[in-house]
Amino acid sequence: MRVALISEDTYPYVRRGAATWCHQLLHGLDRHTFHLVALISAATVPEPAYTVPSNVSTVSAYPINGRPVRHRNRPAATAAAVILCRGFLSEETEMFADGLRRLADLAIGGHPLHGVPLADVLLDAWQAGRRPDSPRMSVRDARSAAELIEYALRPLAVRLPPVDLCHPVAAGLPLLVALAAKWRSGTPFLLSEHGTYLRQVEGSPSVRAVLLRFYRALTRLGYAEAALIAPVSRFNQRWDLRHGADPARVVVVPGGVEPLRYPVLPNEPLVPTVVWVGSMVPRKDLHTLIRAFRRVRDAVPHAGLRLVGPQDDPGYVASCRRLVERLRLDGVVRFDDPVQSSRQAFAAGHLVALSSVAEDMPYPLVEAMMCGRATVSTDVGAVSEVVGDTGLLVPPGDPVALAGACVDLLADPARRRRLGAAARARALRLYTVDTVRRAYTHLYREVTAA
């Protein structure tokens, strides 16, 4: 089977998002031939971060921010843009689909919106369908929103080689490539979702409102056109159904890890230590964990906290460091660089904590469970369905409850071992890479057979 695997700013050029998931999937589906389509936000294509397996026939990188190719049929493109904008701003799905399909047809040979007065079109559509509670849109706002939408629609110009199936690994921009292929050549697509795709856009209230409606309309259209939708959790499945997905075409396929890479950790360090692993960004809510650890330190005088991972938001990390100083936890809370494997980080702790406010598929928890480490987590998103009864759950944003759960486990070695063993058994049963590969082998057959 020939499959076009479509990603955005991840595989094979960047080690983030669904990149590791893509790499693991490809290595297990060697009966299929893959054509990789990588949408890149950078102006130039970076050096690959992965060596692709032998079942990948071609890798095509498309810098979305590169200079677009002007299309000669500007009147038709302008008319399609009017239908598109009026469709998503008024939440008329059929109108939005009509406009997008016209633009997909016009994108053959060049990007259809380059040279189109999209800001004027957008401003007219906003004023025509403006609700009493909607923010006002200035000319400057219209230009900002138009530029973002113009960039977002550039993947419509991507042309695929003959394939049997498209597999976008996220909604949004990868979805546009799959939709265009379906409309042009009838190629079905399977949509994987590792998270809910609604971008956080900076700008005025009207710019944010425009982009929110655009991506919401695109996501709903993708759900309607997909042969199958495969979210990584029941939490995401509820999102899909809430936005119009057919329940019969939604199949939950949780993410998985390779058990051989995460064998059981037999020993614990001498100093009581809590470990957190992840990207240091606001939604991971390190402030709550740091405040909780002030209470942990008071109850367990020699305890330490290690925060391990990339510092992707320097401003946020700086605020965390200031909080550490204010709570007099200098030297107690460590900010460690990323390690080659999260198992190295887990080995330095007695338990693993997760303090997030949003989780679609908490891979660090799955990896900790596979290593046999006990976990304490905030009960958000898919955390409870992943952990089950093998870890402690506390309300999000509650440092008192988080501290209490950590202290209880630090004080009870037998309970830590019992929970860790149960967590590994659960991970081996539900969250392995082989399980993911078997599921997608079946889904590929189901889509192409239909």
Automatic annotation (TrEMBL):
User: What superkingdom heads the lineage?
Assistant: Bacteria
Q: Its gene?
A: icsA_2
Under Pfam families, the record lists: DUF3492, Glyco_trans_1_4
Q: Which organism is it from?
A: Phytohabitans aurantiacus
Looking up InterPro entries in the UniProt record yields: DUF3492, PelF-like
What Gene3D superfamilies does UniProt report for this protein, alphabetically? Glycogen Phosphorylase B
Residues of the DUF3492 domain: 1-247
The protein in question is named: Lipopolysaccharide glycosyltransferase, putative
- Residue spans crossing the bilayer: none
